[in-house]
Amino acid sequence: MKKHLVKFPFLLLSFISLTLTAQGPANSINGQRKIDEIISRLTVREKIAQLFIVSFSSDPRNRSTIEAEALVKKEGVGGLIIMNSGLTAGANMINRLQSLSKIPLLVTIDGEWGVAMRFDSVIQFPRQMQLGALADESLVYQMGAAIGKQSKRLGIDVNYAPTIDINSNPRNPVINTRSFGENPEIVAKYGKAYMLGMKDAGVLGSAKHFPGHGDTEDDSHHTLPLLNFSKERINSLELYPFRALIEAGVDMVMIGHLQIPSLDSSGKPSSISKPIVSGLLRGELEYDGIIISDALNMKGVSEYMSPELIPLEAYKAGCDFILMPERVTEAITVMEKAVERGDISIHSLNMRVRKMLSVKLKQGILEDYYKISNQNLYEDLNDPNYLSLVSSISDKSVTVVNNRGNLIPIKELKREKIGYLSVGGDRNGKELAAELQLYAHIDTIVLRGKYSQNDLNRALNQLSDKSIVIIAMHNTDARPQREFGIDSNQIKLLTDFAQNKRVVFAYFGNPLALPQIHNYEKFASVIIGYSNTIYNNKSVAGIIFGSVGAEGRLPVTSGTLSPGYSVKTEGDLRISYGIPEDFKLAGNKLRSEIDTMINDDILAGRYNGAQLILMKNNRVIINTSYGSMKTDMQVRINRISGMIAHLPAITLLAERGKLSLEDFAGKYLKRRGDSRLSNVLLSDLLMHRTDISDADSYKFRYSESNKEALRRVVEYVTLHNFEDFVKDEILSLIGMDRTYIKGDFAYSNANDIAKFISFLRSKGVYGGLELAGEESTKWILNMMHYYSVSPNGSIVWYDDKEDIALIFLNDKDDSKMAESQKINTGDNLRRRVIDFLTDI
Known about the structure:
alpha/beta
């Protein structure tokens, strides 16, 4: 007996400790006491009101906002759901409503693709169908975590996501692109990842729309859909993802408005059906979390009976929280009378109020709400890492479904004449053209507005002399009821054109539209871009030119193609202009400092304009221009020409056996009578280990004399103008046709130099073509910094350890500048980038 007395307290404490650890603060002793105290002082009416979640927007004149304010003050409703709002105004309205409430409000959002679904000026994440095209769920988890962080920043603790309906009906008007797709396992796996990402960020998710809204042809916003399936079919298919999320610990399940005779023969909508809510979800699936109705103002349920009666029916069915009811004051009165009659027990009501208060306790808002600060609100919600994540999702989900003859990625640019046509490119037609122009010179036509069939025909005729034509359809519609925005006459014109032409067709819309694109097989390549966002446009351009490899797979059956179908293409052949996964390097702070540094120089009159490119891991993360310059303007780069001209030329000659880098320079210049070169190695000249203008020098330094000696060596060996040699052999092959050299001066732009650096870091391979060997390119990279610093402050610098390149050019003419007039901008930028790397 003594033995048991010794062990019992330890076991009891261990049990309490484990319970608190596993279940969190909502079940802590002090927390429960606080909840008990609140419940004890609430009236029956106030308890009922705690279960209601009402809508509002940032507009104080909006009817729902006016009603929400009155309901917070007079009834003490428990929660809010925000509708379309301005960013700062929406945050201010949340703060205002919170300040009016005696008990802090549970703020919620229906933000399936992020808070941008309800707030303006915020980055929008992809819809779930595009996520379903990813090869695994890792980015889905990251997106869930990012949406969770955005929500917390706005004082939001519940997001009614993810949608885990299985999209098994291509005519579904309401779920459609909101679903991860057709495969139940992927829907379950990706839904779980999304939910866990939000949960780890401190935001509750809600699996919806129970028991499954995927196989309907009606929209429950407008009518009550009928699911005439057997219970066995629903159990094996529709319920599969719900079981997975319940087992994973989802905090909330939302009940849809569906008529399902096999589950409830009464004809009641599922949201007010006791057999479905209490019998199936709570009973058979043993779900013990929070159950919430879908919005009770939707016609799928609101036309079933008087609006003030519906909340009571949802409550009696087993719903814990009542979302967006109509006639709230009357509905509370109806429920209050039900308590008086004994239709609702006080115990039942107290338990559901306890759930609401426990959620608030868990989220840390039971005693004091989170006041949203407007300081840096826009910047926080548009964090560069979120931009990077969206870019990565686009790169890995955009799907190629046809690639006859491996047309993409396009490799031999020198041999191709490429044209581009945007159909309906009012939005992103011009932007895609700019992305494509980063890789090659492309003739562009963008059809906007109400263009005619004749306009389209004329555009195609203008591109008939091109060897490859890229056609992008930008004016799409995700809805099957609108035929996905596809005009069959236009499609016929495009496919007829493609019969005798190599055409890359990019459709920025729903993959379910593929059957509407009759004879799409006539296009040499077909790319599904999911939606017309700038990120998907960037990814499509990258896939076409090989900076990005296509990895996406169809999330749904599309015509004869099954879910999971994909065509892989090569990637990492050229520079990528998407945003890298590790975007910290180009964070707001660094970008702001760089902008300030350059703009201060312009204001001080040091130069009138500048170009800047910052690359990390062969991806351009900053590409911008300042003042009077544009990113594609030609600049005289003078000393930087050593990198673009002399180094490739001399190393290529060495690779071809025309000279040796370990030869003395005098061997090739002996007829010039330059005795200073007799005992100077070419490698020493290249590496600036000597200066032939200073006999006593043996140190790293830039020398015009060295540069001139190298020029003469190349000229002597090739017996023709070295500039043409370089231009023909290298520059045009990697898309740098605009780079040219005249006399002793080179002219180029930052983008073309970036391509050249990519060519070098890839050991002489660019766009799938190999021109220079590893040894040659190693020499050039080693030399790059020493050929970079110019008196006018320009710089071309590459760090092979961190794989970072910085290209800064300005329009200051340095041909007559004295060293004392040197501007340090380029080197200062380089030092700041290094410091920033060290800091992170």
